[in-house]
Amino acid sequence: MPWDFWRKKRHEADLDAEIAHDLALEAEERIRSGDSPQEAELASRRDFGNVGLLKEGVRETWGWSSAERLGRDVRFAWRTLRRSPLFAGMAVLSLALGIGANATIFSVINSILLRPLPGVQRASEVVSLNEKLGGTALPLLSYPDYRDFRDRNSVLSGVAGISFVPASIGQKGNCQRMWSFVVSGNYFDVLGVKPLAGRLIKPEDDKVRGGHAVMVLSYTGWQKRFGGDPNIIGTKLLVNGREFTVLGVTPKGFFGTELFFAPEAFFSIAMERELSGEDLLDRRSARSFFAVGRLRPGVTVAQAESALDSIGRQLALEYPEADGGMQVKLVPPGLAGAFLRGPIIGFAAAMFVISCLVLLVACANLASMLLARAGDKRKETAIRLALGAGRGVLIRQLLTENLMVALAGGAGGALLALWITDALASWHPPVDIPVIVNAPVDFRVFLFAVVVSSVTALLFGLLPALQSTKTDLVSALKNEASTGRFRYWHLRDYMVAAQVAMSVLLLFCSVLVVKSLQRSLDAPIGFQPRGLATVAFDLNMQGYDEAQGRDFQRRIVEKVRQLPGVDSAALADNIPLTLSVPWSPIYVEGHPVPKRRADLPNAYFFTVSPDYFRTMRTRMISGREFTDADKQGGQRVAIVDTRFAEQLLDGGNPVGRRFSTGPNEKPLEIVGVVETGKYFNLTDPARAFWTPLDMTYQSKAYVIARTGMIPPESLVPSIRAAVREIDPSMALFATGTMEDQLSWTFFGPKVAAIMLSAFGILALVLSATGIYGVMAYAVSRRTREIGIRMAIGANQAQVLSSVARSAGVLIGVGLVLGLGMALGAGRLLQRILYGVTPTDPLTFAIVFAIMLGVGAAATFIPARRATHIDPMKALRQE
Amino acid sequence: MPNKTASENHIELLQGTLDMLILRTLQWGPQHGHGVGQAIRQSSADLLLIERGSLYPALHRLEAKGLIASEWKASELNRRAKYYRLTKAGRDQLVAEQSKWKLLVKTIARVMRPA
């Protein structure tokens, strides 16, 4: 503030003149009473007292504006910090790491839970409809149910239906599989999305089934596939072998209503059959549509939920077969309705707690450094206090210094978070669907970083500041060691112990999760993924009818079997542990049928060709594999796993028993039993059955080939070539090794393991620097004492042990505390652990060893320095 | 300093009374800082020595409170000096302080020398 500044300048000049005037009058008086002019001036100056102190006193009364005081303090703090760059650097770095970790997690939470859906108008009014039939609430509705909810309610101004479909899109001879949304005609109106170019799908495009061959590109799809070509609007593209007209492009930043899914194209729901190859629009039990609605003005979520729930009850009465027991739940959209929301919030909360722990370690580090530094500055502080500086002023200046360190750390942390989230955004998870991880750092994240760092500075800087200004001036000025009495526990020491404890906790959690991941990777999953190559295609998307499709499937599997290096090959409609494994209710012959559909037992099912189990290396327990004799129109057969046999068939020989998948379906006879594996995820204990592909044709199929001698990835190009030989325009997906396909399953645990390990290592590094700093400081403080000891005959080993002992106690106490906390945390972690008990003694041993090793290393360097102290120098120091 | 012995048995000022003394001194007319100090010393027969380190902050504090005002004028020796004078608020304050002071003196005297 320049104005203020000039006012102060004038005040200063006035004060100087006033003082000069006073001195002059005084001197004149003395001359009058006989002093020589020189004497008079000296005497009057002497009598006048401390001019600096006087000015300081007067300046206080001028009421320095807080901005000016801050400016002075900041300049002073800057000078002080510049004098000790090592301290400043270490402090800023450790804070930046802690705050960076925190801000990254916060920005993810921010984008998932706090930020409104991007590109959607008044996103807070948009809700996702979820149905609950017995088990968990899922965001999946059947189309007839969706239509009833849309037409019967009076609480939502509009309800849009959405389904996810992959489609083969492109020009002739160059088609690519693109994930798309099939949306009801009111979709863009309900969400309030305006076109970037052309027009979007309107209710008029949803009138006649199969009659609206139109599509809209998303901004990403438009950019990625067509280079942002503006002439694309109005042209025709080949979609699943049929021509569709491009109507327009959605704006940049609009990704639909699912946060992690970025569709490349939008189609009208009237074309569902043409795109998915299934008649889903009339089947009330085919639950494959998401529904999002916009609340009418003035209607709360709770009111809307109860209104929709009563419609659900009505539907349950009208259609007990399909909708019996239906309940409706409304949740915010974005995370697959209620399905992912809970787990993701839980995971985010856990990560946030962990990153807060890391920040706490960083803060403890900072606090112990500040305490050590306060010790170093003890003499300076004492001199300033002796010269009349107020304690308040000193504390204010110390806090300003801390605040500057903290803000620099906060800025560093925010930059770190920016960098990490940037890396995240450009990273593509190893899955076939367009998953986006979009966690931009916005003002909330910066606000968060600033608040966290300021609170840190005040909280963790106040204590050292208070302590350091409470010094015994005499001993400080005489340069004596700070504590004449041998006080064992300093505040600093508590900080180190706390740091060690928290590092132990974090290390323990990360080791536990990493081990659990290792176990789950090694656990039997019912097949051997190593050595398998896969390629998938969807014949409906290519416009094949069933006869053509059967022919293609037969020819391709024959061709692949002939390829050099292939031991065996088979087809399957789905592979286990990918996201799209279907399940079916089970009606066991001779068992009573429960009243409610939700009470029926169920099982995952796969449709596979002969040789499937041999190729997957799934063990047959009894009965037989499928053979070429299991044909369309022949005997209806199935193979079940041992869990199916044990749980649903109440013992006895399963072979020969019969079950069906619907009340009106023809029964299937069990001809074989195989080992139980994993089907949906690694922790869900599920059962499954298999039917022959030739018996129940599926247009989507994976070619699975097992290689003997050659690595599976080298087989992929030749399988691709074999497909192209039969049909050059075939769009392929999921090409690669089986292990690539399964990476999604291991994605969650892997992310958790990587993050926990990163945090664990971070905490370890921070506490190592903490221990090192405190020990190095302790040695430097004890230089004189050690010098005397050595002068009177202590040997190196004695000195070493005396230094190491104090560190040992700190680390020991920290370890015990940390392991205690780890026991508690282990119980919380139990739910996500697989095959590891949270009290795993080996984990405890590993963590104990690591912490002890790091602690010893951090102690050793200063301790060794202590043994090299030259007694003569040490004693001459003062 | 003219009178050394007097300054040796000078008395400590009671907290808060310096402001009152300054106001009282300025009742006779505008005065500069040095003059205020001299006037207090003289009227206390050299018993009260006001440190400049207390006097000037007090003057500035009173000015900030609006009890006195200042202006730069030519002094007796034709120098420019900063003259302080009482304001209306200062006069009121002085009256209030004086009656409070009288009560205090009476009360303390009664306690110290019970009748």
Q: So how many helices of chain A?
A: 26
CATH class of chain B: Mainly Alpha
Query: Percent range for helical residues of chain A?
Result: 40-55%
The termini of chain B sit apart by 41 Å
How many structural domains of chain B?
1
How large is the count of helical segments of chain B? 5
Q: Give the strand tally of chain B.
A: 3
Total domain count of chain A: 4
Low-pLDDT runs of 5+ residues of chain A are 482-488
Alpha-beta content class of chain B = alpha+beta
Q: Could you tell me the number of beta strands of chain A?
A: 24
Ends apart, CA distance between termini of chain A: 47 Å
Compute the average pLDDT of chain A: 77
Please trace the helix and strand order of chain B, writing H or E for each element: HHEHHEEH
The secondary-structure class of chain A comes to: alpha+beta
Based on Cα principal axes, name the global outline of chain B: globular
Please state the CA-atom Rg of chain B, rounded to the nearest Å.
Answer: 16 Å
What would the principal axes of the Cα set say about the shape of chain A? elongated
Question: What share of the residues of chain B lie within helices?
Answer: 55-70%
CATH topology of chain B: Arc Repressor Mutant, subunit A
Short summary of the structure?
Chain A is of the alpha+beta class. Chain A is built from 26 helices and 24 strands.
Describe the structure in your own words:
- The complex is a heterodimer of chains A (878) and B (115).
- Chain A has 878 residues and is of the alpha+beta class.
- Helix content of chain A is 52%, strand content 16%.
- In chain A, strands 15, 16, 17, 18, 19, 20, 21 and 22 form an eight-stranded mixed β-sheet that branches.
- In chain A, helix 4 packs across helix 14.
- Chain B has helices spanning 4-8, 17-26, 33-43, 52-65, 88-112; strands spanning 31-32, 68-74, 80-86.
- The longest helix of chain B is centred in the C-terminal third of the chain and has 25 residues, at 88-112.
- In chain B, helix 2 (17-26) crosses helix 3 (33-43).
- Chain B has a three-stranded antiparallel β-sheet with strand order 1-3-2.
- Chain B has one domain: Arc Repressor Mutant, subunit A.
- Chain A binds chain B through residues 14-15, 17-19, 21-22, 24-26, 28, 33, 47-50, 53-54, 57-58, 60-63, and chain B through 1-2, 32-34, 37, 51-54, 56-57, 60-61, 63-64, 72, 75, 77, 79-82.
